[in-house]
TrEMBL record:
InterPro entries: Leu-rich_rpt, LRR_dom_sf, LRR_R13L4/SHOC2-like. Coiled coil: none annotated. This is Leucine Rich Repeat. It is found in: Cell membrane; Membrane. It comes from Seminavis robusta. GO terms for cellular component: plasma membrane. Signal peptide: none annotated. It is a single-pass membrane protein. Residues 54-104, 155-185 are annotated as: Disordered. Residues 86-97 have a biased composition (Low complexity). Keywords: Cell membrane, Glycoprotein, Leucine-rich repeat, Membrane, Receptor, Repeat, Signal, Transmembrane, Transmembrane helix. The chain crosses the membrane at residues 259-284. Residues 460-600 form the Disease resistance R13L4/SHOC-2-like LRR domain.
Length: 729
């Protein structure tokens, strides 16, 4: 056998064909066993072992030598190398042409059928994985893995058995392999289901191809030399060796690409979250919210004065000279309105005036306190009479209020976080504007800065009401304020205004309501106030006024008068006030916050003229140090609901005429010096539900008539409830 190896004899065509078939079978078997070792069943292994033993027995009987069955070896997929059949064994087999060759071929084909069945049962995932490894990570020459077809027949050999040529013993033409197919890795399909030549191409770590077309031609030349006997089988099997790249190294580029892709997706997701975090807070509110167009990078505008023919000259100066001015921004917004050509001139001016107001008071930074508030200012799609609508939408429940002809008559932007600025002159374009309400905003300014228009009342002939309650206004009342003779309502309460009330107040002959309470105003209340006879509401409480003129008695139209919590040097109940026959609410609480004068010459009493105030509903005169008795004429106040005289020095008995005040609901006489009994006539007042008589000197007897009433408040020096007070009655 050794001589045969050193001096190979020429082979017949049948022997060469048989050698190639055996080599092919061994390669396919080894590959299929490696790929499908996990799917073997006990029955398959047993059947395979029986076939192998039968083949060994026949070989031993013929003295041919052992032909070892392909070993089942577990190797890493990418490093599984395909070894050529042993040359010596193949030569020994080829020299023997006994009658068992046909049987041996049948056994080998049966073995291949078993392998094919087992391989076809492998999962599609393993097949896909093998294909991806071939395409992405091919090995060195000689290490190429087999590609796996996308479609594998259920039983490729039984459904499409290999046919052999009867004369040559080779596969028929439809199964013939192309030139170079003997190169390892030249087959497609894990079990040879579809034999398809695949050119081995290897990519190095940089992604460049390491395939050389000359390798295929060299393989063909070696096969031809072997056939002619020029070289031995061992020499024919030799291939150039290269370093084997492990699968882990081959997969590094793929893993890197996956990591890069994951990082990119993470960055994209982070950007989306940041954008949402910025955009969502800008749409706070339950309704539609549309932000005005951005004007930061606006180019110089083409000015058309015909667009706003009634605009003052200062407006055009601001538009042309100051790109950051409210006028410029409003004009730019107006010219971008797609429906501008549909508006009449008055509506163009109206929308422009409101837009200027919006920008003048820092509109883009307004923060709505009420989550149900809609910020629709500067919406092209919304009528300006519905800008700043509060939900639920009801009559006059929005910032801009118009009449039936859609003409603005009131701007009321209250409790608006972020609102700061000055009233622009462009509001004069609103020829029917009657009221401006900026209450409950933190303006922190003075009236002169808030109302630069105060110097030109002639531009605002229609403006009748200015409301700025709780605006944190400082400074004094500017003298120009009294030139607004058309004013009917001036509400500036709950601020920090200082100074005095000018005698020029008499010029406001149409003024109906003047509310200045809870400020820091001082000095005497000017007697000229009595000349503003149109007044119905006069609120001067919680200041530091030192006196009240008797001319207040001339304000016969007064309905509400508040003089309490001041520093009046003579905190009395002037009989002149009794002339206010239309007065409903009178507040005289703590007229002198600095204390009461105990001198008898300054002794204060309730005048009997109080009975003339027939319309009076509330008399609150606590903490004044008044003395004496309650005049019986007080019983004439049939509309009085609340009589509060706590913390005075009133004495004597309570007049029985109190029983005639049929509307009385609360009677507070705590901390006085009353004596005698509680009048039983109080039991005739069916509306009475609160009695406070503590800290007096009443007799400890509660009238039976009062025991039939239900009280929400009942407190005397000896009992604290009706049941307790009525024990024994």
């Amino acid at each position: 056998m050794s001589s045969t190896s050193r001096h190979p004899q020429p082979k017949s065509q049948e022997e060469a064909a048989l050698e190639r078939d055996l080599s092919l079978g061994q390669l396919v078997l080894e590959r299929s066993q490696t790929a499908t070792i996990a799917t073997k069943t006990a029955e398959d292994i047993k059947q395979e072992e029986l076939l192998r033993r039968a083949a060994e027995k026949r070989n031993n009987n013929d003295n041919i030598g052992d032909v070892p069955a392909p070993a089942v070896v577990r190797r890493p997929y990418a490093n599984t190398r395909k070894k050529a059949p042993d040359t010596a064994t193949t030569t020994a087999v080829s020299t023997n042409t006994t009658e068992d060759d046909d049987q041996r071929q049948k056994d080998e084909l049966a073995l291949l059928s078993i392998v094919a069945k087992r391989s076809s049962a492998a999962s599609r995932e393993e097949a896909d994985l093998a294909k991806k490894q071939i395409l992405l990570n091919p090995g060195n020459p000689g290490d190429y893995d087999y590609d796996v077809s996308e479609k594998v027949d259920a039983n490729p050999i039984e459904d499409n058995p290999m046919e052999y040529d009867n004369e040559t013993g080779r596969p028929s033409s439809k199964h013939s392999l192309p030139p170079g197919s003997l190169t390892p890795g030249a087959y497609s399909g894990a079990v040879g289901a579809n034999y398809e030549a695949v050119k081995p191409v290897r990519l190095d770590l940089l992604g460049t191809s390491s395939h050389h077309p000359g390798e295929e031609e060299e393989a063909r030349a070696r096969a031809e030399q072997q056939k002619q006997g020029v070289i031995t089988n061992e020499e024919a099997q030799q291939q150039p060796t290269e370093s084997i790249i492990p699968l882990e190294e081959k997969q590094k580029p793929s893993r890197n690409r996956k990591l890069i892709a994951a990082a990119a997706m993470g960055c994209l997701l982070l950007v989306v979250i940041i954008i949402l975090a910025i955009v969502i807070p800008l749409s706070v509110g339950g309704g539609k919210e549309e932000s005005p167009p951005s004007l930061e990078n606006t180019q110089e505008l083409s000015i058309d004065k015909a667009l706003l023919p009634n605009a003052p000259n200062s407006t055009w100066d601001s538009i042309q000279d100051n790109l950051d001015s409210p006028q410029y921004k409003a004009y730019n917004w107006l010219t971008l309105d797609p429906s501008l050509h549909l508006y009449e001139t008055w509506q163009k001016e109206q929308r422009f005036a409101l837009a200027t107001f919006y920008y003048a008071f820092n509109g883009p930074k307004w923060r709505f306190k009420d989550p149900l508030t809609q910020n629709e200012w500067l919406s092209y799609e919304t009528n300006e009479c519905e800008w700043g609508v509060y939900l639920p939408k009801t009559t006059d429940n929005h910032h801009v209020i118009c009449n039936d002809d859609d003409i603005v008559r009131l701007i009321s932007v209250t409790e608006q976080g972020g609102l700061k600025g000055s009233v622009p002159l462009e509001l004069s374009l609103l020829g029917s504007l009657q009221g401006l309400d900026l209450s409950d905003n933190v303006l922190q300014t003075n009236l002169t800065n808030l109302l630069p228009i105060i110097h030109m009342p002639e531009w605002f002939q229609s403006l009748e009401a200015i409301h700025c309650t709780n605006c944190r206004l400082e400074g004094s009342l500017p003298p120009e304020l009294w030139d607004w003779t058309n004013l009917r309502v001036l509400w500036l309460q709950e601020n920090s205004l200082t100074g005095t009330i000018s005698t020029a107040i008499q010029q406001l002959s149409r003024l109906r309501a003047l509310e200045l309470f809870d400020n820091k105003l001082s000095g005497p209340i000017p007697s000229e106030v009595g000349l503003v006879t149109s007044l119905k509401n006069l609120g001067l409480r919680l200041n530091s006024f030192t006196s009240a003129p008797s001319e207040l008695g001339l304000l016969t139209n007064l309905v509400d008068l508040g003089l309490g919590d001041n520093e009046m040097s003579h905190p009395g109940f002037s009989s002149e006030l009794a002339k206010l026959t239309n007065l409903r609410h009178l507040n005289l609480v703590n007229l002198n916050r600095k204390g009461t004068n105990d001198n008898s010459e300054h002794a204060l009493t309730i005048p009997t003229e109080v009975g003339l105030m027939a319309a009076l509903e509330v008399l609150d005169a606590e903490r004044n140090g008044w003395m004496g008795a309650i005049p019986s004429e007080i019983g004439n106040l049939s509309r009085l609901t609340d009589l509060h005289l706590r913390r005075n020095r009133l004495s004597n008995t309570m007049p029985t005429e109190l029983g005639r005040m049929s509307a009385l609901e609360t009677l507070y006489l705590t901390n006085n010096q009353f004596t005698g009994s509680i009048p039983s006539e109080l039991g005739q007042i069916t509306s009475l539900h609160a009695l406070l008589f503590v800290d007096n000197s009443f007799q400890k007897h509660f009238p039976l008539e009062l025991c039939q009433r239900d009280f929400s408040e009942l407190l005397t020096d000896w009992c604290e409830s009706r049941d307790e007070c009525c024990i024994g009655n």
